[in-house]
Amino acid sequence: MPGTSRMPVSLRNSLNVKKGSSSSQLLSLNIDLFRNIIFFLFLLRWTRKGLLKLKGRGVFGTILDAYISIRRTLYGYFLRAPGVRSQVQKQVNEAITKLQGKLVPSGPGVTKYVNLPKDGWTEEAVLKELEALATMDHTRWEDGYVSGAVYHGGDSLMKLQTEAFGKFTVANPIHPDVFPGVRKMEAEIVAMVLAMFNAPPGAAGVTTSGGTESILMACLSARQKAYAERGVTEPEMILPDTAHTAFRKAGEYFGIKIHLVSCPAPSYQVHIPSVSRLINSNTVLLVGSAPNFPHGIIDDISALSRLALKRNIPLHVDCCLGSFLVPFLDKAGFETELFDFRLKGVTSISCDTHKYGFAPKGNSTVLYRTSALRTYQYFISPDWSGGVYASPSIAGSRPGALIAGCWASLMNVGETGYIEACHTIVGAAKKIIGAIQENPGLNSDLQIMGRPLVSVVAFTSKTLNTYDIADAMSAKGWHLNALQSPPAIHVAVTLPIAKVWEKLVADLEAVVEAEKEKERVRVAEGKGAKGKAMGDSAALYGVAGSLPNKSVVVDLAAGFLDTLYKV
Ligand SMILES: *Cc1c(COP(=O)(O)O)cnc(C)c1O
Ligand SMILES: *[C@@H]1O[C@H](CO)[C@@H](O)[C@H](O)[C@H]1NC(C)=O
Ligand SMILES: *[C@@H]1O[C@H](CO)[C@@H](O)[C@H](O)[C@H]1NC(C)=O
Fold first, then answer.
1. 403: helix, coil or strand?
2. In the chain, is it the N or the C terminus that has fewer CB atoms within a 10 Å radius of its CB?
3. Protein residue closest via CA to atom 4 of ligand 1
4. Where does the record place a coiled coil (predicted)?
5. Is 369 in contact with 200 (CB distance < 8 Å)?
6. Best mutation site among 551, 552, 553 for ligand 2, i.e. most ligand atoms within 8 A of its Cβ?
7. How confident is the model at residue 134 (pLDDT cuts 50, 70, 90)?
């Protein structure tokens, strides 16, 4: 009995031992297997990334990207090295202090309000102060000295807008039952803009606070669509490098990886074969501009549309700037290209009513080929303790007054008015182009970039320093835009500029002549570029901008933003 009882025990023991060792063997085997699988997946993931990169950018492009990135990182460390860092910081602080001196008024004559007044001011006092604020010393946009910025529709339109605001000061479209008029106007604005862009039946849109929000929403919609329909969790989009920065903002805000494609001379349109190569299963959106901000060039939207259709990927066309000009080029008698919903691959369009639609600032629209695309940008929260909440775009409460101002502008200007404005504005742009290409004082030193068809004219110089020209124009009171990579200047023609285009050309001729004279003196005296006073754009874009790592520019720009909130 004991034997039999011992047997099973030892058997049990040996079994146990065996079971224990085999299970620990199994466990270590499993861990090994698990480790191998993880390693394999890791390898697969990075190999795939590497191959996609090679496919997208080619061997040369990939090496170039790696070189730029290494150079940037190393230079970043150099800038942070002791000694260098304090010098750089000192220079940045000096520049910011100088900027503050310019932007923030100070001195004995300036009263600053940093606390609520104990008792409210009288109406007269408020109005008097407002008048003083409105007439503070500024760059004269009223006289046409400012490129873009103020897309002015004339004095009587401004009066009408103010009256429209007055009637809807308290209105908020988040309560459509309380403000039915605002809801009606908003829906009508979207319908009118859809019609301007030849939207097919079933198309839809929303109004937003500006071009940036319109672009953010179009990118969000594309990302959500790709996630819902294809399970894309690492979204990517492909942009011309001239596309508005709002797309890069969308990339940062919504975690969408950005691929930039160059827009080479002479057309300065996005290079379509490069776009095509970058498309992969993570691509959620292609982008084209009509026209872009830097050079005023319309990308080859027809080719992008064909590509989008072939690869079945949404295509956004940024008409924020083109707004109420591109749709009317044809009717105003100018050359144009197809850019809107007539191209079957175009799935969304952003159009700023607050640019050449002459609506008050804070107004834009984003249009979609189908209402399903629009639904992807909605935010709906069914279970909030505050009640079911639904909002179409970023803002919650929105100013109904602006919608009224926008509606009043569209209705007051009307199609004929916009065609006329297009005629005046694009006409002036063509005259500026003509002068730069034909006037003997300009045509040997300035070159127009590409073939601009709308309101923006960009030019560069091979013989003179472009940023010195920009600074000299600023000294004459003009507020033109300095561009980078490559260095250039642009003028976005508006109605106020159209009135004074001849003065612009004359001042440009004087500036070019003066710069040429300086160049001659410099050569005659055998001096290098050193020893001359440097203007702001020359410093920002010429010096700081040419560094391999632009962290100095980032610091300067952050300082600029801080300055905006200094009392
Ligand atoms: C102005 C502009 C936008 C949008 O800018 P907002 O200032 O946000 O209205 C987008 N794209 C282009 C090409 C623009 O010129
Ligand atoms: C500069 O370099 C540092 C690291 O060396 C990097 O973290 C940073 O992003 C770079 N900045 C820019 C603007 O390139
Ligand atoms: C105008 O701007 C307001 C405020 O940003 C916004 O709520 C509204 O939708 C805009 N309307 C149009 C037509 O752009």
1. helix
2. N
3. 211
4. none
5. yes
6. 551
7. confident
**Is residue 280 within 8 Å of 227, Cβ to Cβ?**
no
41: Cβ below 6 Å to ligand 2?
Answer: no
List every span in the chain annotated with CATH 3.90.1150.10.
Answer: 424-548
The percent of residues above 70 in pLDDT, for the chain, comes to 93
Q: Which ligand is nearest to the CA of 392?
A: 3
CB-count burial class (<10 Å; 0-12, 13-18, 19+) for 119:
exposed
pLDDT at position 7, please? Answer: 46
Residue corresponding to tokens 């026209």: 291
Kindly report, as residue ranges, where domains of CATH 3.40.640.10 are found in the chain. 159-415
Q: Quote the CA–CA distance of 322 and 324 in Å, as a whole number.
A: 6
- CB contact set of 477 (below 8 Å; sequence gap of 6+): 139, 140, 145
- Which ligand is closest in space to the CA of residue 189? 3
* b (16+ CB within 10 A) / e for 5-22: eeeeeeeeeeeeeeeeee
Residues 6+ apart with CB under 8 A from 236: 256, 257, 258, 259, 280, 282, 283, 284
Name the β-bridge partners of 285. 237
Fold adopted by 159-415: Aspartate Aminotransferase; domain 2 (3.40.640)
Q: How far apart are CA 361 and CA 399, in angstroms?
A: 12
Residue 513 vs residues 270, 442, 446, 465, 566: alpha-carbon distances, Å: 34, 9, 12, 13, 40
Ligand 2 centroid – CA 76 distance (Å): 5
* Residue pLDDT, tens place only, 458-501: 999 999 999 999 999 999 989 899 999 899 999 999 988 999 99
- 236-268 as b/e, with b when 16 or more CB fall inside 10 Å? bbbbbebbbebbeebbeebebebbbbebeeeeb
Atom of ligand 3 nearest to the CA of 398: 7
Between CA 75 and CA 81 the distance in angstroms is: 10
| E strand or H helix at 394 | none
Could you give the count of Cα atoms lying within 13 Å of 112 in the half-sphere of its Cβ? 9
CATH number of 424-548: 3.90.1150.10
Label the pairing between strands 204-208 and 364-368. Answer: antiparallel
Ligand 2 pocket test: pick from 68, 70, 71, 72 the residue with the most ligand atoms within 8 Å of its Cβ: 72
pTM above 0.70, yes or no: yes
Our mutation pick for probing the ligand 3 site, out of 354, 402, 407, 411, counting the most ligand atoms within 8 A of Cβ, is 402
Structure confidence at residue 2 as a pLDDT band (50, 70, 90): very low
13 lines ligand 2 (CB under 6 A): no
Query: Is residue 356 lining ligand 1, measured as CB closer than 6 Å?
Result: no
